[in-house]
Amino acid sequence: MNKPNLKILLAAPRGFCAGVDRAIKIVELALEKYGAPVYVRHEIVHNKFVVDNLRDQGAVFVEELHEIPNDGQPVIFSAHGVAKSVPEAAEAREMFYIDATCPLVSKVHREAERHHKNGDQIILIGHAGHPEVIGTIGQLPDGAVLLVETVEDVPKIAVEDENSLAFCTQTTLSVDDTADIVEALQARFPAIKGPHKEDICYATTNRQMAVKEIAAGSDYMLVLGAPNSSNSNRLVEVARNYGCPRAKLVQRAAEIDWAAEMAGVKVLGITAGASAPDVLVEEVIAAAREHFAVSLEEVTLAQEDVIFKLPKALSAA
Length: 317
Fold this sequence. Notes:
Number of domains: 3
Strand order of the largest sheet: 10-9-11-1-12
Order of helices and strands: EHEHEEHEHEHEEHHEHEHEHE
CATH topology of the largest domain: Cobalt-precorrin-4 Transmethylase, domain 1
Number of helices: 10
Strand content: 15-25%
CATH class of the largest domain: Alpha Beta
């Protein structure tokens, strides 16, 4: 039987960013150097495939430090960053901890601290409850940071002094939505200070640009990523906003009903969030080949060559 034709537009860049790559390497090298178990507070990155793989190697994932015994084994903080109270609590218990916070998240932390030191109240653009937002708010005393999630929140916030304000953003937001919120903040608070350099990370921006490029030419769009991955969810929104209303977030190829979902689809767009490994994209393409005569076209919007240094405790491993 002849298979129907399917063209796959593969967005690039896609998948792992430098911060995610570094965080995963930190867990792997800690296991290699110190042996199992290595404890990880929160998912090291938001991807079940990655977490399960590390768990199989001996990583033990916990939500809070009190779940970890005092056995001298390393404790790793996730790529999303943590509140200052977390390393303080680890030090109080004399734990050996390694911080895998993405350097671009740490940059936002330092930025917020600098503005606070200069007497500014901080407005953080981000999603309530996200680990990165919890970590950033937790760099400063209670009340020093106000959270804004949408343009509609801007008129409602009560600030202490309109002339002493600064804003920061979560690194994994929609570039377009964030620009609208910043515009609303600047309209209401003309004196508000912004970051010296864009807070939304290069990888988030690049992946969204690549999706914008292929969305309108795709009949259907698959984003490989986890339901709790902010940057992956933003890619689905970007695809829908830029010409592909049929966009879906999937974790694995097994979640795709090829017969029902792909009926009438001639062009399939595929990308992956910054915490999704490329092996999951390859898995989807292999599954597509079982049902279709596939032709592949990679659409590249940027080249990424960023590499972040490993912590000193592991750099020799």
